[in-house]
Structure formats: structure tokens, C-alpha cells
Description:
Elements: H1 12-31, H2 35-54
Amino acid sequence: MFDLRHPFFRPPLRRAVTTAIAGGWALFELSTGAVFWAILFGAIAAWCIYEFYIVFDPANYEETDRDA
Length: 68
């Protein structure tokens, strides 16, 4: 779906902002009564937390030659 192990996400600020936006949007959707979208964005935020903070390995974010 999304490549969260892309080199773009190596800086900590980008990981934090991405996670905060997904979590914040989930809370916004929940406050407006859109439960489906709140669950969807909450799951994305949880996935970001898992990938960026629980199983984070800097080696996964190195530039690689994907054409080879």
C-alpha cells in the first residue's frame, strides 16, 4: 500500500509529522461521527507507530539501487 521504509522517512521529524497527521485526522473523523474513517486513519496511525518507533531499523531507510 504505502512504502513506510522509504528513505524519505529517515529524518525523525518526518516520521513524527506523518504519524501525528494520521492520528489527528482519526480524532477529527471520530469527533464528526465518521466512525469508519476514524478507524481507517487510526489503523494507519497505529501502523506508522509500529513501523517508525517499535521495529525501526535505520538500515531499512538507506538508499538502494532498485533498478538492479
